[in-house]
């Protein structure tokens, strides 16, 4: 899959995940009367799982297997992204940037960093046949 096509799919999956997050938050908080904090957490976790699954299968067409490792890397990336976003927003605000402009800038940085790390670290393409889950050295290929 080309980088451009993968990026386009990554952006679409991100938009869909945001919609899932917002929709689940509305459903949990406004319709089911779940408190705002637990509703926000549950909606975020649902969106995280949706985002992981769709990026794995649609954006990056990850090789079969390795899901546990990929999910751990994805969660690590999310945690680091949150930390960097927080530090970046607070730092930019300290320098006089409006908080919404700072957040928007950090989202842009986060999207770029996340795309690269998802493509090459979380869901890397299998380049060597011995790394493929279906590779068995005793069976001729």
Automatic annotation (TrEMBL):
Residues in GtrA/DPMS transmembrane domain copies: 9-123
Topological relation to the membrane, as annotated: Multi-pass membrane protein
GO biological processes: polysaccharide biosynthetic process
Residue intervals passing through the bilayer: 7-28, 34-54, 74-93, 99-122
Alphabetized UniProt keyword annotations: Membrane, Transmembrane, Transmembrane helix
InterPro entries referenced in this protein's UniProt entry, alphabetically: GtrA_CellWall_Glycosyl (IPR051401), GtrA_DPMS_TM (IPR007267)
Cellular component, GO, one term: plasma membrane
Protein name: Putative flippase GtrA
Species for this entry: Nonomuraea endophytica
Lineage per the UniProt record: Bacteria, Bacillati, Actinomycetota, Actinomycetes, Streptosporangiales
